[in-house]
Amino acid sequence: MLAWLVQRGDPALYLRFRDYGLGKRKLFKLHVEDHVEAAGTEEEHAAFLAALEREVNHEIMEEFREIDLGGSFVGADLRTMAIDANLKSLYDLNYQPLSSEVHGDWTALTRDDLQYCTNPLHGYHRAGRFETRSSGLSLQFLPFALGIVSEAIVELFLRYDIDVEPLFETAANAIGAIIRQ
Predict the structure, then answer these.
(1) pLDDT per position as a tens digit, 59-77
(2) Which residue pairs, CB below 8 angstroms and at least 24 apart, start in 89-94?
(3) What's the CA gap between 85 and 108, in Å, rounded?
(4) What ranges do the domains of the chain cover?
(5) Distance from C-alpha of 22 to C-alpha of 96, rounded to nearest angstrom
(6) How far, in Å, CA of 62 to CA of 26, rounded?
(7) pLDDT bracket for residue 56 (50, 70, 90)
(8) DSSP structural state of residue 92
(9) Structure letter (DSSP) for residue 62
(10) How far apart are the C-alpha atoms of 108 and 101, rounded to whole Å?
């Protein structure tokens, strides 16, 4: 998203992105208020509700903040944005598979949460595993993840003539030292 916005360089798009996000936050606040009121736990959640109130009303009063229930602030999906920003490979190889995990797509469920019933009379249906499994991730993944993050952040700061790349190099070296231990 950030790479797409930077590439476009259109202040109006930044404002739409901001307004869309603030509208989603207002909607979340309204949902939390409804839930807390229905549960009768206003006192227990007063600090959280007050923090949401400040966050939502920080820039303008929430009465003037619109909520857009659309899927995107520009009417384009993230894959299309990745293609436009020349990041399709990053999307295909990283974002999409991780998104499948987060959203509980079928392949994620069958691999991590379901197992075949061993009774042949049951037609090999699937049932929940109901056990904790290792994610299979290791610290070896961290340098790769840091590289992805640093590319976007370094690019953004360079737009303001600020070089933060040495900070990421320091972090990558520290992570490498931890992994080698």
Answers:
(1) 899 999 999 888 889 888 8
(2) 90/148, 94/148
(3) 28
(4) 1-86, 138-181
(5) 25
(6) 7
(7) very high
(8) I
(9) G
(10) 5
3-state secondary structure 95-160: HHHHHHHHCCCHHHHHHHCEEECCCHHHCCCEEECCCCCCCCCCHHHHHHHHHHHHHHHHHHHHCC
Return d(Cα 151, Cα 86) in angstroms, integer.
13
Instruction: Output the CA–CA distances (angstroms, integers) from residue 113 to 75, 131, 132, 135, 138, in the order listed.
Output: 33, 8, 9, 11, 20
Write down the residue that tokens 């820039």 correspond to: 59
Give pLDDT, residue 136: 56
| pLDDT digit string, tens, across residues 81-93 | 999 999 999 889 8
Token pair for 135: 């994610």
CB 168 within 8 A of CB 150: yes
100-157 pLDDT per residue, tens: 888 888 877 887 778 888 888 888 888 888 766 555 556 677 888 888 888 889 888 8
pTM of the predicted structure, to 2 decimals: 0.60
